[in-house]
Amino acid sequence: MNNKTAGITRGITKNVFVLSVASFLTDVSTEIIYPLLPIFLTTVLGAGTAFVGLVEGIAETTASLWKLFSGWLSDRLNKRKSIVVLGYTLSGLTRPLIAISTASWHILAVRFVDRVGKGIRTSPRDALIADCTEPDCRGKAFGFHRSMDHLGAVVGPFLAFILLSLFHNNYRMVFWVATVPAILCVIILLVFVSEKKRRIEEAATPPRLSLEPFNRQFKYFLLVILIFTLGNSSDAFLILRARGLGVSLTLIPVLWGVLHIVKSASSTPAGTLSDRLGRKRMILAGWLVYGLVYLGFAFAGEAYQAWILFLVYGIYFGLTEGVEKALVSDLVPTELRGTAYGVYNFSIGIAALPASLIFGFLWQIFSPKAAFFFGAALALVAMTLFLLLIPPDHNREKSISA
Fold this sequence. Notes:
This protein is mainly alpha-helical. It has 2 domains: 7-195, Growth Hormone, Chain: A, CATH 1.20.1250.20; 210-394, Growth Hormone, Chain: A (Up-down Bundle), CATH 1.20.1250. The chain has 17 helices and no strands.
């Protein structure tokens, strides 16, 4: 292997690559089903729109709670792989159950189990990526993982479109096909992921599901993330805004696919840059992009502007998603990584629901412009606090994460 090739692949260890492929396959499977599920619920099973909202609300809340618990459990048991495999297996088992569902409450139960699976696997998986990556490559590793995940979100809807045409709009057949990548995901995890057990001193205190063991910088980071997330509403509002600006209904899936392409293309380069320039700069740049995009949606008046804003919005994800996860690893000791990712993911999850409620309220009572102003304003507050409270270049302080 020459030096150039080694430079490209450095940080993408076998575990990182396999976990990234697993996320790609799972997202392909999920995104084949997810865009069709509301239509399947309402047209085939006869559910109302309120029930659709109930399904998604319960699903996401469930995932947030399990992300918190599973991260702590992976530290407590000193095991990551088995918990990750369990989570992916639970989600995979829901695919054929969706295909045979005959009542709306079946879908509620299935989505509940699916999100339990997602919650179980997410934090231990993030900790496993950090465990097998050197501190100066973690941004690249997490960026690559996010890139593959978003690529699955591009491929999944495209396959759903092909399968619907092939099976003459037979939703159940499409759901059966979505089972295949889910099965492949579990197989490659079982065969190819290896876990090196961390040495834990006999006298070491077992990790607690508490913020007390963490340093002040990590607690500040959680506070800033909570504030930013309160202004980060569901992307469904961006789709509604795009429709209001004149983007046709038939082009909405294309717009959504373009967003994921930009997410996928920008995540690995941005993560790699964070290893060189520092996490803080990249996150601040990402939140600045976010704030500008929300201001853009506040003032936009034409359909073409929605396309431009969606393209730029994808860069925000590339600059922040993987880099934030790398920063979590930089800020906490090895033995608390699982718990830290659990708390981090839980913090985002619990703030996401009120964020969308506040945004929707402002949109309905005042105007879309007021709602987008609110999101941009909280991004500015979060940037200011992040700038003041979090010291730069924690990825270079290897003593913390060694």
